[in-house]
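Fold this sequence, please.
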Amino acid sequence: MKNIKGILCDLDGVLYNDSILIDGVIDSINNLKNKGYKFLFVTNTSGVTSDELFDRLTNMGIPVQDNEILSPPLAAFNYVKNKGYKSAEVLGGNSIKKLFYDHIEENTTSPEVIVIGDIGKNWDYQLMNDLFNKILNGSHIVGLHKGKFWKASDGLRIDIGAFITGLEYATTKQSVCIGKPEKAFYEAAINKIGLPPENLLMIGDDIVGDIQGAKSANLTAVQVKTGKYRQELTENSPVPPDYLIQDFNELIQLLDH
């Protein structure tokens, strides 16, 4: 793998599980950076801004620069702004709402666009039905990503992709989703890191968001057996990883081959 010069790296499930670091990853990142590999941390984390995510990673001890992170909120904001939407309802944390509402009118009655991010356990029937009716009345849907599930410290949890897909099914309207596995997100990552696809690999735990998404952008795809990895999902995937390794720390020896 001598052609690889840059690494697109997922966060949750690869470097840590629910904010608990996986042993050895800090040393492994430092070793790879010392060998000259460029890094871009790409994540579907949608509850906080990139600046907040940078602070979180730094506090965990992960060696990261503020320009080495790509996450969906800012990309979604740019999309909504470029589309010319004048009003929005944003489902997400306070910092995500501020990102949008500082520039676009907040409207929870009849918004032009509904932006769906992470709201944790606040999903319920009333909210889904409320969104359903707004979409039927003309609101557009923008999802920060369409992930199926993620791994917390107490097990797997359903992700926002399930709710977005449910709204699409019920309304027969299609959403625009910004994060992984969307090809546009990977193209943005390629542009940001400044290397061609043949010189990049993506490492992640999600067979769809990380592996299938990376392959759609012609990247080498490496899956780890940590986080949300499930053997049956990988074995049954129409797009398998190029390499399957135990954890992030094995990436160094893989790259040396």
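The domain at 72-177 is CATH 3.40.50.1000 (Rossmann fold). The chain has a mean pLDDT of 95.
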